[in-house]
Every structure is written in C-alpha cells, then in structure tokens.
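Lecture notes, unit on protein representations.

Consider one protein chain, 199 amino acids long.
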Amino acid sequence: MAQVHDTKQRLLETAQKLFYARSYEDVGVQEICQEAGVKKGSFYHFFPSKRDLTLAILDESWKQYRETMLAEVFARDIPPLQRIERLLEVQYRHHKTVKKETGQVLGCPYGNLAGEMSTQDEAIRERLKGIFRDLEVPIEQVLEEAMAAGDLPELDSRATAGAMVAYLEGLTLMAKTWNDPQVIRKLGAAMLKLAVPVS
C-alpha cells in the first residue's frame, strides 16, 4: 500500500515540478512517467488523463500551501496589516530562492496555469478560480480585523481583498517578466494603498 502511495506521489510531485518550470502544454504524460520512474500504465491507473492529474496537483498543492505558508503568514502574532506585509515578504523570499536554484523567477504556479488554461479547460479554470477566492478569505479577514481596531476606514473588505490578490498576481507576473524578485519588494508596498480611500 505504501508503494502505491509513493508511486502516485512521485507522479504528482514530478508533474508539478515540470509544469512549474515550463508549462502544462509543453509537458506530456510520457515525460512525466520517465522523470518519475513510473510506467505509463501506472499513470493511467491513478489518473485517467493529464487533466485529472492537474486537478489533483491543484488540490494537494493548495491544501499544503494553505496549511503551511498561509497559516504562518496570517498567524495572529502581529497586527493585522502587518500580516499583509508579511505575505509580500514571504512571496519575495520564495521567488528569490527559486531564482537562486533555477536561474529564473518562475512566477505563481496558479497564475501561470490560469494564464495558459483558463480558456482551454473549464474544470481547471474553475479549480483555479476557487484557489484565488480561497486566498482572498484570510486577506478579507485581516481587513475586517483592521477596521474593527480602527486601523482602516470602513471599506468593502471582499472587493478590496480581491483587488489585493489581483495586485499580488500582477506583481508576481512582473517579477517573472523582469526575472527579478526584487520587483515584489519595490512595488509591493503599494498593495496596502488599495485599502486606503482616495481623497
């Protein structure tokens, strides 16, 4: 049983790594199997298609990201708005590490896939939409907490959280385009201004 789990896990991890480094369309089932050291028949035992594999990757990777990185970022050990600053800093450090290891800023794996597949596959698009909405939730909660503490004026917390996620994705895309994680630090401070009303 452990061997079966290990085989499935190798397929998930290998495909996730290949998709992130290149693209969904550029990576085929045969290459995933070769890189993972798994026979093609075993692939189809676990996943009827590459799409099913991708949906499983999204589910597992987001669960892990939410339970580790997001839980750390949004821990209530610092004031609410500082948690958004910490989110930006964690993103910067992640992309700096990836560039050191690969020579490239690879961007957001969810944003990359959304840009590539949202007009091509409805199931993948819907799953990604859910992930982005899921990311909005802790930001929305932070904004609500900051308003309650008097740190922010009254605002539409849900719309503002959505704007902040969009801004974060745009930052990551620009960092990828310039191949420079420093872009996240240079432009990230402006993200908090989305919560300040225009006078």
